[in-house]
Design brief:
The protein is α+β, with helices and mostly antiparallel strands and 98 residues long. Helix content is 39%, strand content 32%. InterPro entries: Dimeric_a/b-barrel, DUF1330.
Length: 98
């Protein structure tokens, strides 16, 4: 079942975060992930949104997400993300269309 990773990101070191972004796509694609949306100016429709960026990723299933997130390649590039930003990330299961 498809899963979606939803990230709320606050960036405090643009250079470190941008270094992460530059290396991100090849690692994501290597593990079958898809970048569905990334927006540094999301429109707040309801409630408060104190973050600078919203990101939406999809993976075939939770195993694929965890393989990516725990991979040596992602752990290496995530050092820049962790140094350059603070994030809240949710993993949400898709709805079975059947």
């Amino acid at each position: 079942m498809t899963v979606y990773a939803i990230a709320q990101v606050s960036i405090h070191d643009r250079a470190r975060y941008d270094r992460y972004v530059q290396a991100f796509m090849p690692v994501l694609m290597q593990y079958g992930g898809r970048l569905l949306a990334a927006d540094e100016a999301p429109e707040t429709v309801e409630g408060d949104w104190p973050h600078q960026k919203a990101v939406l990723l999809s993976f075939a299933d939770t195993a694929a997400f965890h393989a990516w997130a725990g991979s040596p390649e992602y752990r290496r590039i995530s050092e820049d993300r962790l140094a350059g930003s603070r994030a809240t990330v949710l993993l949400v299961r898709g709805i079975d269309a059947g």
